[in-house]
Specification:
0% helix; mainly beta
Length: 109
């Protein structure tokens, strides 16, 4: 079953060399374990998605250029679709951004 993702969830780009945490800024209404839940609007470079180390396409710093999140939830928060741990985002440079591990996985039961 897909999990919702929240602030600090680790993202990766298949053309980058290192993961980076997602920073949620699109909404502050819904949270899971005290962390804001991510939506399709959390895609701004250097704000929501930090660089992924070196880019294998550009052979320089891997600053993301996200286009649109796919595989989002059917549910919305304030009119924005929720992101899931299987959501992906195409980068206009040629990479694909995906979830490494949901922040929910780090919570101890």
């Amino acid at each position: 079953m897909s999990k919702h993702i929240t602030d600090t969830t680790q993202l990766k780009c298949n053309k980058g060399t290192s993961p980076t945490p997602l920073t949620v800024t699109s909404q502050s209404f819904m949270s899971i374990d005290g962390k804001p839940q991510a939506t399709e609007e959390d895609k701004q470079p250097d704000i929501n998605i930090k660089p992924f180390g070196m880019c294998r396409v550009l052979r320089s710093s891997c600053t993301p250029s996200p286009i649109k999140w796919d595989n989002t939830s059917d549910f919305e928060i304030e009119g924005k679709k929720e992101l899931l741990d299987n959501s992906t985002c195409q980068c206009s440079i040629g990479g694909k951004i995906s979830v490494v591990k949901s922040a929910q996985d780090f919570v101890k039961e």
